[in-house]
Design brief:
The complex is a heterodimer.
Chain A (H helix, E strand, L loop, with lengths): L3 E10 L2 E11 L4 E5 L6 H9 L6 E6 L2 E2 L10 E4 L11 H11 L4 H14 L15 H14 L4 E5 L7 H18 L2 E6 L2 H7 L2 E6 L2 E6 L1 H6 L4 H6 L6 E10 L4 E5 L2 E6 L11 E6 L4 E3 L5 E10 L3 E7 L5 E7 L9 E6 L5 E3 L9
Parallel strand pairs in A: 3-8, 3-9, 6-7, 7-8
Antiparallel strand pairs in A: 1-2, 1-4, 4-5, 9-10, 11-12, 11-14, 12-13, 14-20, 15-19, 16-17, 16-19, 17-18
Helix pairs in contact in A: 2-3, 2-4, 3-4
Chain B lengths: L6 H31 L4 H7 L15 H9 L2 H32 L5 H10 L5 H14 L1 E4 L2 E4 L6 H4 L6 H12 L3 H9 L4 H9 L4 H16 L3 H6 L8 H4 L10 H28 L9
Antiparallel strand pairs in B: 1-2
Helix pairs in contact in B: 1-14, 3-14, 4-8, 4-11, 8-11, 9-10, 11-14
Classes of the chains: A alpha+beta, B mainly alpha.
């Protein structure tokens, strides 16, 4: 088992730079999730670690060995693909054992390893079938089994659950999490689904435009997003952003005003900020409460009653919309005027460059 | 809900089948005519061509034409030569062309697209234009055989095989098929530890049955029907294939019955090969392991 170290990793296709100098340390046994919107470079980065894409610049170490020019098979990595990539002409048994067969593992040992992987993934009864005779979830298990038997240093997952339906996705998510606990291996997982990222990861790497936006634990990213992008990307429903103007403040708090909001004092450091600066206030939908003297007043345009919570879309006087998550038994109807407030200590403030202001 | 068929639909279906049967007959009649005529003496054969009897085994039917054909030409030798040359060329070209196409489809190397473009461009060059230069080339080439090194390839089997081992059409067919295969399969195999040759032989070849069958049929027909090239390079009867053998029958007075008997005999291997591969073609359509 091994950790990874990425130093100034770059990737260009012709003149287009898709990975722009990524620095990242991954500890041995960590579950790291790369997350970001489509085209952010997360899959490319994973494929560079696998050895399926050349590294244009920088240094990639697996364990303490630089592997930039090393063939995929010699990197000690195994990968699970989004499309599963099972060999259609081979049975499940042969699919799982293909890597061992190529390594010329003795037949008895190979058989034992295949059956052990099948036992872990509860697919002993599928070993004689061909991939075409399996359901999506079963195919995914086989793909994971194929990775397990090789006992790699690092497991790589490229959006492995995106082809499964919602309930199966949840089951497989839990299984992958359990697998990580059981094997204790280093795992790198790419997804655009932030629920997967939040539930699986020890450490999340948020990427956008080929640049790492923030690296941290799921809760760190949720509560202390480094910038507007991370704040908007992590959390569902999305964080609300309100343009505000600084009225005044000191080293421990700022007074913020907006035409759509009663003036609020938010506990963030005002150093480097002066009166009149235009900032962005971020409030998560779950940090709103119904309050008679709430900072915002708006008209309800959409109500989604989910039982455990009620998601309300509130139109403010300037046409901007707020997403507000309220208690499940909140009664409200479209067209009604609601007043909502928030706890200032839960709010985030971003400067003109989009950087989160510290408390 | 039960399927409802109206009389109108039945009529449409019947017309469709009638049309298909007519088209099928257009293709079947010449073969029927050939086989039926091969059993008739020349006089009756020519007389029957003016009536539907041409397609019916009626009148003086015998195997005489077949015996006569065997007397006129070494039919067995010609069929053997053709099958030998065709079989080696088909197997060799499937192997070489599929490997070349694998490189074009999956490997990265400098000048790849230019080389592929040049190969495909050769598709538009008719064989007749390069036949004479090629004859001069093979006439000047050495060959290492059981008698040591000999110069000039004329009057051999290999002169009929080697120049046709690689051809643009077969490479093109394979490239097109390989490009449509899911790339993840190759990547998964690479990560599983397969060398490029193992990716080719253990992953790509087993799932490429349809294109191998198609390429084999086309190559078989092209090779089996070779006429001009073997005529140019084989002066000795020992190496001549079936199509060159046909000229033994077109003498001053063409014996049409014997021609038909000879043609019937040399058509059999083609039909057998086609029917065999057609079955392989259908059963080998690989079900994909990639989520579709």
């Amino acid at each position: 088992m091994a950790g990874l170290s990425l130093t100034q990793i770059r990737k260009t296709y012709g003149k287009v730079e898709v990975i722009k100098g990524v620095d990242l340390e991954i500890e041995h046994g960590e579950f790291v999730v790369f997350v970001g919107p489509s085209g952010c470079g997360k899959s490319t980065l994973l494929r560079m670690i696998a050895g399926l894409e050349d590294i244009t610049g920088g240094e990639l170490k697996i364990g303490d060995k630089v592997v930039n020019g090393v063939q995929p098979r010699d990197r000690g990595v195994a990968m699970v693909f989004q499309s599963y990539a099972l060999y259609p002409h081979m049975s499940v048994y042969d699919n799982v054992g293909f890597g061992l067969r190529l390594k010329k593992t003795p037949k008895d040992e190979r058989d034992a390893k295949i059956r052990e992987a099948a036992r872990i993934l509860q697919m002993e009864h599928l070993l004689d079938r061909k991939p075409a005779q399996l359901s999506g979830g079963q195919r995914q298990r086989v793909a994971i089994g194929r990775a397990i038997v090789r006992q790699p240093e690092v497991f790589l997952f490229d959006e492995p659950l995106s082809n499964l339906d919602a309930s199966l996705r949840m089951d497989m998510r839990m299984e992958i999490s359990k697998l990580h606990r059981d094997l204790g291996a280093t795992m790198i997982y790419v997804t655009h689904d932030q629920v997967e990222a939040m539930t699986l990861a020890d450490k999340i790497v948020v990427l956008n435009g080929g640049v790492v936006q923030q690296v941290g634990s799921p809760l760190e990213l949720y509560h202390r997003p480094a910038n507007l992008f991370v704040a908007g990307f992590i959390g569902s429903p999305k964080m609300n952003f309100i343009d505000v103007t600084v009225e005044g403040g000191d080293n421990v708090s700022l007074r913020l005003a907006s035409p759509v909001m009663a003036t609020q004092t938010v506990p963030v450091s005002g150093s480097g900020v002066k009166a009149g600066d235009r900032l962005t206030l971020g409030v998560r939908p779950y940090d709103f409460r119904l309050m008679e003297d709430g900072a915002f007043s708006g008209t309800v345009t959409l109500v989604e009653q989910l039982g455990n919570e009620t998601i309300v879309n509130l139109a403010l006087s300037n046409g901007q919309h707020l997403i507000v998550a309220l208690d499940g038994d909140t009664e409200c109807s479209i067209g009604q005027t609601l007043k909502v407030g928030f706890l200032p200590e839960k709010a985030a403030v971003f400067d003109t460059a989009g950087v989160h202001l510290q408390r | 809900m039960a399927a409802v068929t109206s009389p109108n639909q039945n009529l449409k279906t019947s017309l469709k089948y009638l049309l298909l049967i007519l088209v099928a007959l257009v293709f079947v009649f010449p073969i029927v005519f050939m086989v039926v005529s091969s059993f008739k003496p020349d006089a009756q054969l020519l007389r029957d061509t003016s009536s539907f009897n041409a397609f019916l085994p009626v009148g003086d039917v015998s195997l005489d034409n077949y015996f006569a054909a065997f007397e006129r030409a070494p039919v067995g030798l010609f069929v053997f030569n053709s099958i030998l040359v065709t079989a080696i060329t088909v197997i060799g070209s499937l192997f070489l062309c599929s490997m070349a196409a694998f490189a074009f489809a999956f490997l990265e190397f400098r000048g790849k697209s230019i080389v592929l473009s040049i190969i495909i461009a050769t598709l538009i060059v008719p064989f007749e234009t390069i036949a004479v230069p090629m004859l001069m080339v093979v006439n000047a080439l050495p060959w290492l055989g059981s008698d040591g090194i000999t110069w000039g390839w004329l009057n051999t089997y290999h002169v009929q095989i080697v120049p046709f081992l690689a051809d643009a059409l077969t490479i093109f067919l394979f490239v097109q098929f390989f490009r449509d295969l899911p790339k993840e399969l190759i990547e998964a195999a690479r990560l599983d530890g397969a060398s490029w040759f193992q990716v080719y032989s253990l992953v790509i070849v087993p799932i490429s049955g349809p294109v191998f069958a198609t390429a084999a049929i086309l190559k078989f027909l092209a090779m089996y029907n070779q006429y001009l090239w073997p005529l140019m390079v084989t002066q000795s009867e020992q190496y001549r294939p079936v199509m060159v053998g046909l000229q033994y029958f077109f003498q001053l007075n063409t014996a049409w019955g014997e021609v038909m008997a000879y043609l019937s005999m040399i058509t059999l291997p083609v039909l057998a090969f086609y029917l065999f591969l057609q079955r392989a073609f259908i059963t080998s359509i690989a079900s994909t392991g990639i989520k579709g």
